[in-house]
């Protein structure tokens, strides 16, 4: 049944949803990687699609920017549409010396300056972590495709324009592999409602060095990341003994 933010019918979404921030990216993914896709959500132009990848039904839907936005869509997908697996596919900034633009970053955990997980966890600190099997599937897929990866803690920022210039250096010292705005919220929602979640991002810029990708390089890196995410879904199915 429809929600205030999703007008799909029950059964329109697959049990696994890939989630980029940009709804135009969702359409690009459907057109580029999925067969027999159809649009299943149009509310607020937050496009959602369901199709098949190598015979496996998969959905893709935008989640917007920031933890509040991704939390709304993830919660409704899980509780109203029976989605069990959500993989954020996005971009991030780098701060570590050994992380470069074009690298793929896999978020084993996600630190944050947001208070949402303390709110849901009765004021206590919640360790926002990805599902291990999904994380392993992403790492194995990246390895077999020959794509450089770093696996570790992300930092999900509440502010894109942080007024604290010292923050990036602090994140570097703590070994943060990527700075983005959603993973910690996604992991919290998944834990609260009994689903699985993971995050894979391409490094589009290095915050401390000032390196960045041009539009062509961003597109190529995004396609590499998408192949990793899609192949990881099939690997995860195989590990569970599932069939398309």
From TrEMBL:
The active site is at residue 205. The keyword Ligase does not apply. Phosphate binds at residues 21, 25, 44, 88-91. One of its GO terms (biological process) is purine nucleoside catabolic process. Keywords: Glycosyltransferase, Transferase. It catalyses: a purine D-ribonucleoside + phosphate = a purine nucleobase + alpha-D-ribose 1-phosphate; a purine 2'-deoxy-D-ribonucleoside + phosphate = a purine nucleobase + 2-deoxy-alpha-D-ribose 1-phosphate; uridine + phosphate = alpha-D-ribose 1-phosphate + uracil. One of its GO terms (cellular component) is cytosol. Residues 17-224 form the Nucleoside phosphorylase domain. GO terms for molecular function: purine-nucleoside phosphorylase activity; uridine phosphorylase activity. The keyword Membrane does not apply. Gene3D superfamilies: Nucleoside phosphorylase domain. Belongs to the PNP/UDP phosphorylase family. Catalyzes the reversible phosphorolytic breakdown of the N-glycosidic bond in the beta-(deoxy)ribonucleoside molecules, with the formation of the corresponding free purine bases and pentose-1-phosphate. Homohexamer; trimer of homodimers. NCBIfam families: deoD (TIGR00107), PRK05819.1 (NF004489), PRK13374.1 (NF009914). This is Purine nucleoside phosphorylase DeoD-type. It comes from Halomonas ventosae.
């Amino acid at each position: 049944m429809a929600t205030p933010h999703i007008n799909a019918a029950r059964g329109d979404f697959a049990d696994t949803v890939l989630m980029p921030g940009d709804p135009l990216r969702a359409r690009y993914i459907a057109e580029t990687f999925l067969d027999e896709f159809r649009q299943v959500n149009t509310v607020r132009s937050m496009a959602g699609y369901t199709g098949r990848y190598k015979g496996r039904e998969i959905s893709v839907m935008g989640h917007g920017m920031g933890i509040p936005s991704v939390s709304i869509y993830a919660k409704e997908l899980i509780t109203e549409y029976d989605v069990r697996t959500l993989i954020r596919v996005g971009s991030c900034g780098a701060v570590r010396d050994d992380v470069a633009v074009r690298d793929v970053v896999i978020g084993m955990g996600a630190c944050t300056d947001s208070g949402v997980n303390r709110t849901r966890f009765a004021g206590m600190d919640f360790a926002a972590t990805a599902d291990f099997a999904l994380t392993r599937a992403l790492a194995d897929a990246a390895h077999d495709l020959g794509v450089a990866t770093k696996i570790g803690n992300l930092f999900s920022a509440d502010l894109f324009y942080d007024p604290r210039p010292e923050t990036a250096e602090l994140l570097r010292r703590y070994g943060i592999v990527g700075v983005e705005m959603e993973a910690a919220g996604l992991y919290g929602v998944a834990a609260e409602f009994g689903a699985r979640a993971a995050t894979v991002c391409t490094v589009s810029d290095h915050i401390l060095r000032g390196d960045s990708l041009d539009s062509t390089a961003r597109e190529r890196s995004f396609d590499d990341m998408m192949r990793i995410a899609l192949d990881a879904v099939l690997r995860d199915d195989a590990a569970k003994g599932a069939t398309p």
